[in-house]
Amino acid sequence: MLNITMIGCGAIGVAVLELLENDTQMRVEHVIASAGSEALVQQRLAAFKYPPQVLTALPADARPDLLVECAGHMAIEEHVLPALERGIACLIVSVGALSQVGLVERLEAAAARGNTRIELLPGAIGGIDALSAAKVGGLDSVDYTGRKPAKAWKNTPAEQVCDLEKIDQATVIFQGSAREAARLYPKNANVAATLSLAGLGLDRTRVTLIADPLSEENVHHFEARGAFGGFEMSLRGKPLQANPKTSALTVYSVVRALGNHAHAISI
Ligand SMILES: NC(=O)C1=CN([C@@H]2O[C@H](COP(=O)(O)OP(=O)(O)OC[C@H]3O[C@@H](n4cnc5c(N)ncnc54)[C@H](O)[C@@H]3O)[C@@H](O)[C@H]2O)C=CC1
Ligand SMILES: O=C([O-])CC(=O)C(=O)O
């Protein structure tokens, strides 16, 4: 039985727990919540058959097989770095956090000291296997466009670019590097960072972000060219009801990754 600690228990966390409830090969024993939100998280878990214990930090003697982050950028520094130092393997969805200069190197060093690994999950996008394979032969360009309904951009810098309540057509709210996109839109540009880390890097991956009042989907489109040839993909993700910024595929990506650790065959 794979013993898992989950960081964060919001839209992604709750949906992952629901899907794992009847899995006999893995169990989330602990959920790490932000200080002050323990009661709310306990409430979210009340209906579960085996509710995980809710804590605000991993106890010093806890040795989960895996730690999975479903919380947000701040959780990488706060929980993932120390867990790696302690030798606990980590899976993360807040990949955009790695746009902070020096954090990749610090994560690598912590994992080396702990003799363990960190896995960056594809989350809401696909094709990461092909893109990172293409990188081996050399990439010339990677262009990514993220298009989400207008309400998905609430409480982001997009509000300074346009009136999200009033726009009646697709509106470009950002154009620039993946590093800048991840910094400005931590809850909406993790895909941009993931594509960059798999491909041409945070400074050379070109990103366009669009608020689209006519769309009900989170559409992720990218085009890559290089020695391998070229490919493009478009993924039309359904947003989670509990959080319109987040696509349901992110939840399935977490469950798939955990299953690959728990089950005999990984795919
Ligand atoms: N890689 C990808 O494709 C995607 C990645 N994400 C990432 O996943 C994160 C979570 O997404 P949702 O579940 O939809 O958000 P949410 O806002 O519904 O839930 C996040 C939960 O984590 C908790 N939290 C925040 N910081 C924490 C910390 N330092 N320690 C413990 N708990 C903490 C919050 O209190 C909240 O309950 C996003 O912020 C984003 O960074 C989201 C969507 C796609
Ligand atoms: O869930 C999505 O569609 C993608 C997302 O929020 C991100 O890239 O941060």
From TrEMBL:
NCBIfam families: PRK13303.1-2, PRK13303.1-3. It comes from the Bacteria. Residues 168-255 form the Aspartate dehydrogenase domain. The gene is nadX. It is an enzyme of class 1 (oxidoreductase). NAD(+) binds at A124, N190. Specifically catalyzes the NAD or NADP-dependent dehydrogenation of L-aspartate to iminoaspartate. Its EC number is 1.4.1.21. One of its GO terms (molecular function) is aspartate dehydrogenase [NAD(P)+] activity. It comes from Pseudomonas arcuscaelestis. Residues 8-119 form the Aspartate/homoserine dehydrogenase NAD-binding domain. This is L-aspartate dehydrogenase. It catalyses: L-aspartate + NADP(+) + H2O = oxaloacetate + NH4(+) + NADPH + H(+); L-aspartate + NAD(+) + H2O = oxaloacetate + NH4(+) + NADH + H(+). Pathway: Cofactor biosynthesis; NAD(+) biosynthesis; iminoaspartate from L-aspartate (dehydrogenase route): step 1/1.
